[in-house]
Amino acid sequence: MYNSEAMALSAALLAVAGDLTQRIHDGVTARGFADLRPAHGFAFARLAPDGATVTDLAVHLGVTKQAASQLVDEIVRKGYAERRPHPQDARARLVVLTERGWACTRAAEAAAAEVVSGWAGLLGEGEVRALGERLARIAPYGPIKPAW
Amino acid sequence: MYNSEAMALSAALLAVAGDLTQRIHDGVTARGFADLRPAHGFAFARLAPDGATVTDLAVHLGVTKQAASQLVDEIVRKGYAERRPHPQDARARLVVLTERGWACTRAAEAAAAEVVSGWAGLLGEGEVRALGERLARIAPYGPIKPAW
DNA sequence: TCGAGTGGTCAAGTGGCTTGACTATATGGT
DNA sequence: ACCATATAGTCAAGCCACTTGACCACTCGA
C-alpha cells in the first residue's frame, strides 16, 4: 500500500472521528445538556460502569490528575456526578454518576445511534456492523487521548 | 442496531483516531520534526497542494482567522512555510510550504503508512483497504474539526 | 513504627484560542 | 468614476483548560 493511500485512509478516519464527536456533542446539547463539552463524554464513559477515582480518570484521559480533578469539580458542580468515600481506600474518593449523569449518558448513546444510523443509510447496516467489528479489532487498550 | 452498539462503534472509532493521531505525531517527531504539534498536520494537509490563504486555513480548521494566522506565524518562524503575495488578490497572502514543509509532509505520510501497515498485520491488507473505502464514503465535506 | 509510595488538592504559570477593533484592498450598484 | 459594503489580514487583550510544583493525608511493607 502506497504512503499516499495510508494518508488518505488516515485523513478519512480523522475526518469521520471529528465529525462524529461534533455531532454527538450537538445531539447531547439538543437533548438538554448544554453545559458540557466533548471532553466530558470521555470522562462519563469511564465513570459509567461503577465509578472511578480521580487518578483512574486522569490515566484514562491522558491528562494530569490535577486536570482530572478540575474536570470532576465541574461535573460535580453541575450535578452530573458526586464524590463518595472510597470503600477500600480512605485516601481515595470514588466519583460516581448521579441520575442526571446517567440521563446524559443515555442522551449520548441516542445521539451516537442517530449518527450511526445515518451511516447505515449510506453503507447499509451490514457494512456498518463490519466497520465496527474491524475498528474494535484495531482499537488500542491504553488511555483515550483526544485525536488532536 | 441498539444504542449501546452504536456507542461501542463510536468509542472504537474515537479510540483508533486518538491512537492514530498520537502515533503519527510520534513518527513525525522521531523523523526529526520535533517542534510540531498534531494540529499542525491538519494545516499542512490544506497547504500541501497549492498553498492557501489564512482565511481558507481558518475555515478548514474550524477556528478563527486570528488563530489560523497565529498558527501560520509559528510554522513560518520554524521554516515550514512562507507567506507570498497572492497573485490575484492584493489583500490576501498565499501561504505555501517550503522544502522543509514538504519533507515533514512526507515524514507524516511515512508515519501513517507505518501505523496502517500495523493494522494490515491484524486485519489483512484487503480488510484495511475495505475499511478505508467505507470511511471515505461516510467522511464529511466540511471543516476538519479536532475530534474533541 | 517508620519510610517510601500513592490519592488528592491548592496555587501559580502557560499557551492556544477567543472576542473586539482596526487597516488595506476588492467589488458592485448607482 | 464614486462610494458603500464586504472581505483579507493583523494587533491587542482576555479567557480557560491544562501544566508544573508543592504539599497533606492515608496506605503498606520491611
Question: What distinguishing features does this structure have?
Answer:
homodimer, 148 residues, mainly alpha, globular, DNA-binding
Report on this model:
The structure is a homodimer of 148-residue chains. Chain A has helices spanning 3-30, 38-47, 54-61, 65-77, 99-123, 125-138, and strands spanning 81-85, 93-97. Chain A starts with a helix and ends in a 10-residue tail after the last helix. The longest helix of chain A is centred in the first third of the chain and has 28 residues, at 3-30. With 148 residues, chain A is mainly α. In chain A, α1 (3-30) crosses α5 (99-123) and α3 crosses α4 (65-77). The first copy, chain A, has one domain: Arc Repressor Mutant, subunit A. The interface between A and B is large, with 63 and 62 residues. The structure holds a DNA duplex (30 and 30 nucleotides).
